[in-house]
Each structure stands twice: as structure tokens, then as C-alpha cells.
Specification:
The complex is a heterodimer of chains A (998) and B (273). Chain A is α+β, with helices and mostly antiparallel strands and 998 residues long. The model of chain A has no long low-confidence stretch (mean pLDDT 95). In chain B, strands 2-1-3-4-11-10-9-6-7 form a nine-stranded mixed beta sheet. A two-stranded antiparallel ribbon of chain B has the order 5-8.
Amino acid sequence: MAFQLEIALKPELFDAEGEAVRKKAGNYFGIHLEKVRTIQVITLDIALTDEQKARVQSEIFTNPVTQLSSFSPLAVPFDHTVWVGFRPGVKDNPGATAVEAIEDVLGISLKPGEAVYTSKRFCLTGIDLTIEQARKIASEILANDIIQQWKVASSKEWSPESGVGIILPKVILNHTPTVATIPIHSDAELIRISRERNLALNSNDVPVIRNYFLNPEVLGQRKSVGLADPTDVELEYISQGRSDHCNHNTFGGLFRYVDEETGEEAVINSLFKTCIQNPTLELAEKKPWVVSVLWDNAGIGAFDEENNYVITGETHNSPSNMEAYGGAITGIVGVYRDPMGTGKGAKLVMGGYGFCVGHRDYSGDLKPRLAPRRLLDGIIEGVRDGGNKSGIPTTFGQVTFHPGYMGKCLVFVTAVGIMPSRVSGEPSENKTTHPGDLIIMCGGRVGKDGIHGVTASSEVYSEHTPAGHVQIGDPYTQKKMHDFLMEARDGGLIEFITDNGGGGLSSSIGETARFSNGCEVHLEKVPLKYDGLDQWEIWISESQERMTLAIKPENLERFMALSAMHAVESTVIGKYTDTGKLHITYNGITCAYIDLDLLTSGFPQWEFEARWQPPQKRGLFEPVIREPGDYGKLLLDLLASPNIASKEWITRQYDHEVQGATVIKPLMGVNRDIPSDASVIRPVLNSHKGLAFAQALIPQYSAIDAYHMVSCTIDEAVRRLLSVGGDFDHIGGVDNFCWPSIQFDPEENPDGMHKAAQLVRASRALKDLCLAYGIPLLSGKDSMYVDGFLTGKYGEAHKVSAMETMQFSTLGVIDDISHCTTLDCKVAGDKVYIIGKTLNELGGSAYYELFDYVGLNVPEVRPEIHKTMYQKMTHALKQDLPASVHGIYRGGLLVHLAMKAMAGDLGMRINLSKVPADKPLRNDVILLSESPGRFLVTISPENEERFTHLFKDSDCACIGTVLKEKHLIIHDINSIKCMDLTLEELKTAWKKPFGDLI
Amino acid sequence: MTDVNVLVLTGYGLNCDHETAFAFEKAGAKSRRVHINALIHHEVFLKDFQILVFGGGFSWGDDHGAGVLQAVRMKTHLGEDILEFVQKGNLVLGICNGFQTLVNIGLLPGFDGDYSKRSVALSNNDCGNFRNDWVALKTNPPSPCVFTQGMDFLELPVRHGEGKFYCDAENLNRLISANQIALQYALPNGTLANRKFPENPNGSICDIAGICDPTGRIFGLMPHPEGFLNITNHPQWTLQKETLKRQGQKPDFSAITLGVRLLQNGVAYIRES
């Protein structure tokens, strides 16, 4: 008989969680509450004696110092109470750890079907709080229908005895697993079935699939294992493998590109091959530190003689858009499995993030599934718990607000790992599967979670997007597995390792079996969360925290013993063969028998029409604005604009120092509150080498030309790295494209050809810049379909597409971290230098954004000129010449002078007449243009000569002095003072928008 | 010179184990990372060590209260061994999640030699969030705490969501009168934070950042000494480097930090006893 335990803080104690809810209700909906108290509810569906119940209550679930608890509802006063619990099948992490503790304390093990479920009850008190208001708080702050169920009760209808009653979110399927065969009489029929079953088969693929299954030779072979028509397991396998998510059909597609400006007509066969693979292979030849690229879960570079680093970046947009917390935590925990599954396995050493969302205070007519601020809250908390509970520092990140992301938000997550360069004498990047190796599934169990995740994320969002692919990551389970796998690796027990992400076993086994050229999988051996899953569900479920490994039979015993020691579940579910076949059985009966090379043979390439109209032709022009008179007010408004304003509240929630390795933290300066250009860690604690990491994201320039969006983004990510001491000769890159749909359709996607042309131009910029700067692409991913349909005022649905977006991450090895520096002005009397030329490039700038202008003069990178400056900058830092270095990014010179001054808590006197420009420019252009390739540097008088000598052939000029007075003073091109603000004014404005969020 | 052997617990979601072990090596000890289950299964024995470290991290994901489930497992399987370890005059250090575990086991505050009673707690930060920042800390010279001997002021990172120290007035008075409050949050000038946020990052009563048992041999603290391993961990190290340069000096990048110094005190104590 199930019973319930309610736990609450003693009444006299401050309830921080309740207080947070009270504040949100006030800030978000203007609902005034006097008090919110939270009650933890533990529902135990276990047969226990009264004595056992008492022990569990006192020894596990009640802290005698701070808490009260009771097996009947606690009499905490409220006007309305809201109960929130998970829906059946949603991962309940505290429920699982509760079971561990109960079994431990009582020395019992739960019987099948027994379980513990956690939920919460919120007691809301507020004068004339209405039931509607309570419901609003429940549905828009406390619960998300996709994963949670909730109940609201008023004090009148509340029964003090039974409380909310006992709700068991137990999955009961009562279903006998059955394999269905699918008739393939005609293409039309298969297409229909594909739609019905959510197979998301591409109609162009259907003839190929039918030809295969109708091929007499294939039919003969299938007959021998008792198969005829394809089974659902087989079609699901094909559908997963062919999805854009797994197969990158868009980047591998055929583009017919027409440039109306130059008249160029080009046919591009695979952007991946021409713009990513080829340049990277070319650079890998020249860069001895490139160890492994383009094939594994992540790229590998050399850190030192003994160690390699590993990096990859992912996005998790679709699920985050529907359930922000679950999607984001699944995203970060998921990307952390990539380095674990790279080579023989890497230890995680840092993570990064990039969030793109609608404006936090959006109050327009469009109704996104989750209000932007709630979405952002959830994303922030998801990445927080995923990173912090994994014991991995989150050392860098950024947030971009733009209405275009209301259709689908973007959640970028980046993972960096480190691994010994040799494991049991062999290079650790090499791995393969051999016939006879055992297939092991390790970590979490399999449930219905994440079914069709990859196909759903390969679609435009609508209310009909299946919610099944929304999950909640479990960093605790994964951390245990991580620690276990590192020991297994060092013990030489691992032949091959890869993660189970999109496509689940279907992808991980399907791909690893290609090395040995075959496999046999026994699906009934796969550990399940609950009975009743069909075979195809077991095969493609994306249940998290799982790795797939190949182990030599002779190592099995040692592997399993180590697994048990770490309390990690590992199961042999089959073996690798060399039959050329993917052979899946369930209780001995074959449910799939497919040639492994099917997915890589004969499927039609996707094709796109790409048509480029130059910005002028699209009606873009420079706005006509006279020079502002009040630069002070302008700067304060820029600092308070959401994309520039301080986001310290996010950074502080992220553990960025665990592992004891941070050298340059995400927030630096005398008051530890200004974002640094890049982060630096010391992944090998007894080494003086460091890893510098930075990211850049400037999608606003895509409104003019995605070519320059990409080149400026890469240039910024490079300058960020150099500013802290990165070495220009060792920079690896990670590209993460997030693009709206590019397939032209006169009704559904009328501007598809333009978006396709933007993708072509963006990819070309990626190639050009990487070759010019010598940046091999160590890893990269693309996530298309960042569009969504949002309902408006009259029930009409608008298609909202994101700006064409690419996040670029840079990673570099620093030989000696003692040469690192930071952006803050350090000593009064130092000279302020600007490096690089300023041009009239206000197009897409933060300044224009203030007025909702786009403009035309988009910033352009001049790689050949920038390159020599960047080499000099590396040189200057290696000699410790600058006292501080900071790149000039979004917001231009004006904003970034303010950043340097605020960081050092020292003033500056600046004279604009000295700023190098291509021609005489207006003050506003000099201050607000976002021309790339520029740095601000402060130098001690004694280093000035050596520094200027080093930069003598470059644009390099002294534009002012660091002051001990806490004022930022600017003199215009005629040397007349045009701005004088105190640092306090600057900081107050910059911190105002989000300052009260923590 | 005899070896001082340090056992740093690992497993079940704990982190900080690598740098904590490294920090103790820097402090002159021999340290070993040991999985909780290796102790429970008697593959490793407490008797071979003189310092037991409950390190930072999210054991059991912090579910049901940070450190609670770790305390349950340790107490259930190793309660006796740990008491014996303590009685032999060895040292126990709890950092962050480890501190939370020590108060839930009852090893702290250890009034009247009772090492199994929970009489103080670490609960949710008043700010309502996990928080990573550096804090200034003041030691309590008359405290018997072995680890803070000879130190008056230091800076360390805090990284926690449940670091608010709480106990009732009676127990607080006992802590104060026995000088068991070994470490308190302070302002940069060294005076107590007096619950001012963010200097006191979690709202701890009496600005308590760390306490010891009456013998001073069991010590728990929320800040992370192993988070200040090298001077390059300090948030202002680049400014300090530049300032020294102007005085014609170079920073000593192999200098022993105050974080490591705190651990050295423990190592020295074992060596001398």
C-alpha cells in the first residue's frame, strides 16, 4: 500500500525556494502573495513496516534541525495550495536516489513495481488570491504540462486528512512487445505509413527503400532468417539513420547557387565537403597538433607530450523550446558524453554555453509555448544543474536576445575534455570494433523517453511536435559512469566507446558495427525502466546517460567488477560480427536483418535552390542620422540594452572553478564582475600549459549578409582568445550552425532560396576565414529548422524564423599561463592604445539596433591585414608587454572603453582624433562602428616603446591615458570634451536590467 | 620524515577529488582517491590513513538535502570505523558537500563527544541560488581548529546552493563559547560580513563559514581551499602580477597559496603528533 511523507522547513525558517516563487508571481504577473512555503512530498509505493517507515522518515527524509515531516498532510497555512508532480515515465532523479538510500538503510531491495516518487506542494497565501491566479502560477511558473501534472486546491476544499491524495505516476503499459511488418506494395502506401507512424521518411528515399526490400537476393537472405516485408524495427533504423540530424543531408546536399550581384552560377556538391572537410584536411597537414578530426564524436588536438584535448559543440533547441529545463539539462549532459565517447574516452574539463531567446520582457501578441523569461529561466537552470552536478566547470558563455528566437530558441552547449595521448601503449584516438567483441550498454536504462527525438528536431516546431522526445537529463548517473569509464579506459579494457544520443542504440550500434562490418543484437537483454516496450522502441529510444562499448570477452569479468564497484549498470546485449549484416533478435526471433552498407549507398542527395540578392537589391540602405549630442545618455542606454547588459546572475549560478583549474574566469576585474574576453583553464594541474576557450555569436549581421556574419563571428572568437594570451598559431575551431529552413516552398517557405543562399555564403566565409587564419575545424554541428509557428491575437499562426545564426568556438593551447592577462585597466598613468583600423561599418550594429535600423555597411574582415596584427599580439603577450588587452566587439569602441574602465575601476581620458580610420570619420562612427580586427590595450610607460615598435607597420595609436579618477572622459575629433561619466554611473546602468535577478 | 597519508573520498557523484588529492600532495602529504565502495567492501582500510577528506561535489545529486544521502551511506556502513578513526587522534576534513555530510552524520559539531547527533544544519542559500564567487574569510585565533592555526585572513572560492549555516540559539552559544566557529565570512578589510550579501554569500547565521569539533581535529567548511591551489586561481592574480612588475618584481608562480597552507596545517599536525 503506497503512503506519502510530507516534509517542510520549520515555520520559523526562511524558505528561499518559496520566496523565489513569491517574487516571480509578483514580477511576472503582478500577483501579490504574502508568503509561499514549499513542501517536499515523497510517495513511497513500497511495502514497509511501521518501524521501517519511522527509520526512513527520521534517517533519510527529515533533518531534525531544520525540518518537520509527517505521513499525513502537514498543516502549513495557505489560501491556495498547488501540488506539482511528474507525469508517468518522466525521469524522477530524486525518486531514484531515494530508492538507493532506502535500500541502503533498511538493507532491503525493492520488489518489481515498487518505487518512490517525488513531488512538491506549494502553499500560497495572499489576500484575495483567486483560484485563477493560483492556476496561472501553477501552469506558468511551477509546472510544465509536458512533463508535469498539477492540482490546485483552496483552503476550503482542502481535506486535512487526505491532502492531495496519493498519485502514482507509474508507467503501466500492459502491452506485449510485438514486431510489425510493413507492406510496401507502393511508394504511396509506404509514404502514408511513414506519416502515420511518425517515421519521417523522406519521400525521395522511399523508392530506394522499396527497391532494397524487393531485391530478390535480399528477399532470399531475409527468408533464411524468417523475414519478408520490412519490419518496423528496420524502417525505424533507416529513418533514424537518414534523418537530417544524423545524416546531415542539408550540408551534404546539392546547392544550385545564383548570385544576382555577380552573375555567378554555381553548383555546389556538399557544403560539408567543400567548405568544412577539405579546408580542415588541408590545415591538418600543416598543423602537427591536429590529432583526429571529422570522424569521431569530437575532435582531438595535442595538449602536450602526454595529453590530448578533445572538443565538440552541440545544440539542443527543439526539446528546450518545449520544456526549457529538461531540454537544456539533457543538452549539456548529452554533449558531455561526446568527449567521453571520443577515442578511448576523455575526462571532461570544461563546458560552455550560448543561449538565443526572445526578449525577456516580451509582451506582444504572439503566444510562444513558454514565455521568453520563463524559457530563459528554465534553460539557465537546466545548464546549471547539468554542469554543476557533473563536476565540470562552465567557464564561458553568452546570451543573445532577438524576437526571431521566439519561434524556436537556441541552446548551444560545448564540451572540452582531456585524455592521455596513449592508452596501454597505443594512441588513444584509435579505436575499432572486431568480430567477437561484446556489445555493452552502460549507464541508464531504456524507456519510452526520447522516441523520435532526431526526427522531431529535424522539423519546424508546431503544437503537433511530439513531446515524447522531451527528457530530463540525469547528471548524477552520468557522473558515476564517467568516473567508471575513465578507470576502465586506463585499465585498457575498452576497444571502442561511443555515446547513445540521437537515435539511441540504432545509431550507436549501427555506426560502430561498420568497423567490424556486422553485429548481432539481442534486444531482450537491454535493461528497461518498465515492461511493455516494443522492439523498435527499445532500438531507437533516446533514454539518456548511456554509452555503447566494445569489450574483448576476456576483459568482461574485470570490466563488470569495476562497473559494480562504481554502482553503474552494464549489460552485454550482443556481439560484433563481420557478416556485413545488422542482425537484431528478440528472444531468438529475428526482427531486423539489413545490410550495413544500405544507409551509405544509393540514397538520393537533397537538392536546394539558392538565390542571392545583394542587400541593396533587397532594399537595405544606411539610415540618415545626424550625430548625437548626448553621448553620455547614449552609452548608458547601450550598456542597459539586453544584449550588452551584465548577465552576472547567470555566470554566478554556474560553477566555473571546480577541478581547481581556472586561470582566467568568466568574470574578472577588481570587483570580479566584468565578462572576460575568453576563459583559460589549466587542465593538467602540475603543468604550466593552459587551454584558452572563447565563443562568439553575432547573428544580427545576417540581416545584411551571412557571409560577413560568419567572418566577423570567427574574427571575434579569435580576438577573444588572443586577448587573454592565446597563441595565433594554435587555434582550433568549432562551428555550430542554426539555420531556418532553406528548402524553397512557394507557400510554406517563400524566402527559402534566400536562406539557402545565406547558408552557401556563410559556409564560404567559414572556409575562407579558417584557411586565412589557419583554423582547422576540430568539430561542428548543424541544426536546421529553427522556425516555429506562433499563435497571434486572432488565433492566426505566424511562422517565426530565427536569424541565420552560427556560434563559433575557439580553443587554443597556451604554453605558459603566466603570460595570460585580462581586460581590466591596471595602473593609473598607463597609456591606452587602439590596434586596428576603424571604418564606417555601422550596419547591423548595436547602435542601429537601438532604433530598429539594419543599415547596409556591415562590418567586414580583412584577413590578410588582421593576420599580421594577430601574430604581433601573440608576440606582445608572450613578452608580457601589455598591462591589459580587450577586443572591441558589439557596441564598438564606446561600449568597450566602458568595459575596460569598469573592470579596472580606473578612469580613462580618450581622444578620438587619434583613432586610426580609413578616412576622416564622424565621432559617432568612430565610437559605435563595429569594425572587426580591433583591440584596446593599456601599456606601462616603460613598455610603450617596445610595444609601438612591434606594431610599427600596423594601425596602432595611443588614444589616451588611464586615470585614477573614476571617470570615463572622451574628447571628440576636434579634441573637445564630448562625454564625462563616472564609473558608478556606467555600472549602475549596465547592471540595472538584470541586476535584481539574484 | 614519516608519510602523512590522506584519503580523499570519490564516487556517487562526488567531484573535487582530483584537485583535493593534488592539493594535499602540494601540502606535503601522500594522498589517494578512494571510492566509497572500496572502503565499504574492505578493499581499502581507514587505518592506513591519518587524514580523511569528505570532499566537495554533488554526492547523490544533492537530492533530499546536500550531503544527506552520503551521510546515510557512510553512517550505515562505516559509522564504527569512522568513530574509531577519530578516536585515534586522526583528522577529518569536510569541504562543501563534505561539510554538509559531516553535519548530517553528526561528526560536527560533536558536542560532548557525541559524534552521531545532528544539531546544526546547512540549508538553502538565502539568495535562492547556487552561487560561485570568491569570499573573504576571517579565522578565529583561539579556536582549537587544527587547520586554521596561525592564519588570520584568507580568500577562497565558494560554490554551493546549500551553505547557509543554521542552528538554534543554545547550540550557537555552545559553538561560540567553545570557539568551535573556526571560519567566518568577512569584508575585504577583515571585519565580519555581518550577514551582508554577497560577502556573506548564503545568509549563514553569525557569518559561519566553517566549524570544528571541540578537539579541533574535525573541521568542516563551505569554501574550497583546494580551489586556491595556485596563485593563478586568485581572481585578481593578473593585477597582482602587473603591480609586482611595476615594483621590479615577478610573482612566484610556485608559491604556496593560503588554500594549500590551510591543508599544510593538518599535515604538519599529524607529523608532529
